[in-house]
Design brief:
Layout (H helix, E strand, L loop, with lengths): L1 H13 L5 H15 L5 H13 L4 H44 L3 H29 L1 E2 L2 E2 L3 H19 L5 H23 L1
Length: 190
């Protein structure tokens, strides 16, 4: 299992531009769709934990999936596979970039990569947003709750992006809001 996790995360780490969030669709495709190591609900929970924990989301997800699949050996394989490509690529770039940074073709290549990175980050966000309003794999019967959760997601994104509100406060506020809404809904059902 060490080598399977190492190779899986090595592939993901080698061919992903844009950091941990850009890795999410590749991680999901490999560990949920192809390997069936975890299901989609566990994947969403893993993302929430990986974001909440300090550190890089790619490393945190490698720790979670490595532990789930292979214990300590799985953690070592997944983390090493996730980190090694970035380390080697950054080391190589640092060694030659200082001499190449002013070449127009290099500048153009970096500008050209940006839209692809944005798309790699946006695609899983839309998929996660759809899954976030599901209740254990099925749409919540209360359409109002679905709409509320979607509005809260949009409001949180706008507060962080345009309002420059610290994400910690947004996360705490959404947790409190969700607890309040679920409590109100449960009381009405009784």
């Amino acid at each position: 299992m060490f080598w399977q996790l190492f190779y899986t995360y090595l592939k993901i780490g080698t061919f992903t531009l844009g950091g941990g969030y850009a890795m999410l669709p590749l991680i999901q495709r490999e560990v949920v769709d192809r390997k069936n190591w975890i299901n989609e609900e566990e994947f969403l929970n893993m993302i929430a934990l990986a974001q909440a924990a300090p550190g890089l989301i790619a490393v945190n997800s490698a720790i979670f999936i490595g532990w789930r699949v292979g214990g300590w050996r799985g953690v070592c394989g997944a983390v090493l596979g996730a980190v090694l490509p970035s380390f080697l690529i950054i080391l190589a770039i640092a060694m030659v970039f200082k001499d190449w940074k002013d070449i127009p073709a290099v500048e153009a290549a970096f500008r050209g990569v940006r839209p692809a990175v944005v798309a790699l980050i946006a695609a899983p966000l839309f998929k996660m947003a759809k899954s976030a309003i599901k209740d254990k794999g099925q749409r919540t019967k209360d359409k109002g709750l679905n709409a509320l959760f979607l509005l809260v997601s949009l409001a949180a994104a706008l507060l962080i992006w345009l309002g420059h509100v610290n994400p910690v406060w947004v996360i705490l506020a959404t947790i409190l809001l969700t607890l309040l809404v679920v409590d109100i809904v449960e009381r009405r059902r009784r």
